[in-house]
Amino acid sequence: MIQINYQDKRPIYEQVVERFRQLIVKGVLSEDDKIPSVRNLAIDLSINPNTIQKAYQELERLGFIYTVKGRGNFVCGRDRWMEDETTEVLQQLKTCVHELISLGMQGDGIVDTVRTEVKKCANGKDDAAAAGDYNRKGSDAT
Amino acid sequence: MIQINYQDKRPIYEQVVERFRQLIVKGVLSEDDKIPSVRNLAIDLSINPNTIQKAYQELERLGFIYTVKGRGNFVCGRDRWMEDETTEVLQQLKTCVHELISLGMQGDGIVDTVRTEVKKCANGKDDAAAAGDYNRKGSDAT
DNA sequence: CTATGTGTACTAGTTGTGATAGTACACACG
DNA sequence: CGTGTGTACTATCACAACTAGTACACATAG
What we know:
The structure is a homodimer.
Chain A: H1 12-25, E1 34-35, H2 38-45, H3 49-61, E2 65-68, E3 72-75, H4 82-102, H5 107-124, H6 128-131
Antiparallel strand pairs in A: 1-3, 2-3
Helix pairs in contact in A: 1-3, 2-3
Chain B binds a DNA duplex through α3.
């Protein structure tokens, strides 16, 4: 489910955050799905519970999950993060366009690239639906 | 020329690298332009020469500058970095597109956004030409 | 109620990286 | 040779990431 890459220079907690962010945005994890407990995931990944806790706090701050004391952590609905995420990624997209122009790439080429990429997504439908679910309400991990 | 933002969480040497990258990509610094010496820039920014050295080594590794022992550091030609940079930014662009699709944005909307941004660049012509040059061959800093 | 699983908070310590400080050496140029 | 340059090296400090261990509060099942 969650893998840690020790070759990666980024801190572990950041990798955990990023991984869950992907799973949630792509729809692999749905609203109110339960995610592993701090302790369970820590054992699973052979790292310290505090590191997972830090990751979960960050995910909560970003609006991706909510916490119920004594019960666990659960995935928030799209309305809690979709707008912010879209704004952010849109900003990244614009920055890329500016840089490509600076690098001498033609505007038409950029637009074409994007159009091609959009079509590719439409055909492949991304990997969200294919991935299936992971840990639904009530089906707690063994 | 180069400013350091101490509010920024990124290390100083990384900020220096990023700033020079921008100046070079945008054409403010041209091929064979001389950039400040390790010691001069260190004094200028009130930081340690070793930090600048680290930044310059990274810039050389990335192909943005070349070093001549005893003379200084100079900007490389576009051919040394343009291809790699374009490939990298293009990859970022595609990732953004995929994420926006996952976030539920319509493909048409994405393409429109890009087209609009391209036009904006075409009108403003970015800020490359406006910035002028900084430190040409032979005009060493005082 | 108790036992268990959960999130939360706190202290203490280790490790790695960024940054500083200082020194020394090699090369280019006038 | 003297100056300005890049390069290399050691030592030290500060901070972030991570680990280790403990303690407490809450929810649920028995």
